Amino acid sequence: VIKRGRVELAAFTGLSVNDAYYQHLTGNASVIYYPHDSFGIGIGADYIFGHLRSENVTVVRQTLTSVPAQFEFPWLFAHLDAYWVPIYGKASLFGSTIVHFDLYATAGLGAAFPGERTVPAVNAGIGQRFFLSDWLAVRIELRDHLYLDNLDVADQRSSDVHRRSDIQN
């Protein structure tokens, strides 16, 4: 699959996998241009439309085993990304169909929007595409967004206590 000069349009959904208290649901879109077969530049946005509370939040609040931090959930991430595609391959399915695939890494800079604020953010990820035709692919990606935020714990900002902002991901 030759990518040089191609534009990739992607729309997909996502969910968080690293939060013990909430499951965040997202709708995502990106546009990537490939000036070279193994390098792309893209812009993307991740809109967070759901924050599903887990049972852990209830347990912590009822047993008072900890003081949960109060913070504003981010509702949007906007980012400019670089894509590197070092691995490309083909696989034969059932001896009759050949499926093309690639493995890529991505990293980018952007902004997170917790509440009414805008804070700087970075992201990094890895992913894989399985090409179903010349114009259609299935994309699986694991990406981490990191941004600086101040948490309120027991009505005191953690940055006041520790003299720093906390990195959220």
Model description:
This protein is mostly beta strands and about 170 residues long. It contains two helices and ten strands, in the order E-E-E-H-E-E-E-E-E-E-H-E. An eight-stranded antiparallel beta sheet has the order 1-2-3-4-5-6-7-10. Strands 8-9 form a two-stranded antiparallel ribbon. Strand 4 (about 75-95) and strand 5 (about 95-115) form a beta hairpin. The longest helix is centred in the middle third of the chain and has 9 residues, at about 55-65. The chain is globular, with a radius of gyration of 20 Å. The chain starts with 6 loop residues before the first strand and ends with a strand. The mean pLDDT is about 85.
What is the topological layout?
Layout: E1 7-15, E2 22-36, E3 39-53, H1 55-63, E4 74-93, E5 97-114, E6 119-131, E7 137-149, E8 152-153, E9 156-157, H2 158-162, E10 166-168
Antiparallel strand pairs: 1-2, 2-3, 3-4, 4-5, 5-6, 6-7, 7-10, 8-9
Q: What descriptors fit this protein?
A:
single chain; 169 residues; mainly beta; two-stranded antiparallel sheet; 10 strands; globular
H/E series, N to C? EEEHEEEEEEHE
Distance between the first and last residues' Cα: 34 Å
Main-sheet strand order equals: 1-2-3-4-5-6-7-10
- How does the major sheet shape up? 8 strands, antiparallel
Number of DSSP-assigned strands: 10
Low-confidence stretches: none
Mean of all residue-level pLDDT scores: 84
Helix count equals 2
* Tertiary shape: globular
What percentage of amino acids are in beta strands? over 45%
Structural class: mainly beta
Q: What Rg is obtained from the alpha carbons, in whole angstroms?
A: 20 Å
Helix content: under 10%
